[in-house]
Amino acid sequence: MIGLFTRLFSKTKADFTRLIREGSIIIDVCSAPEYKSGHIKGSENIPLDELNTKIGYLKKLNRPLITVCRSGSRSRMAKSVLTANGLVAYNGGSWYLFKRKYKIKS
Fold it and tell me: Is residue 106 part of a domain?
């Protein structure tokens, strides 16, 4: 239980390499047209304005979530929505920079 609170409220950076290796799901909260113009292969597109309707679905996945978007601002909002609803979520920021930094192949 303490580990959960530490992850939720800690200011330390997430170990995205480990999270990816362990099967976290990358949620791209861009609009559908933005997603079609570029995204991380294997990510799931759930636009920010639809996120609240997908909370039940995401809870059933029972895996940590990494939120990304074009610039990082919507992904930060999405992370807040997800954690407020009891999910373990991390803000990955810009999908393009995330993809480059963690060497995710297209």
Answer: no
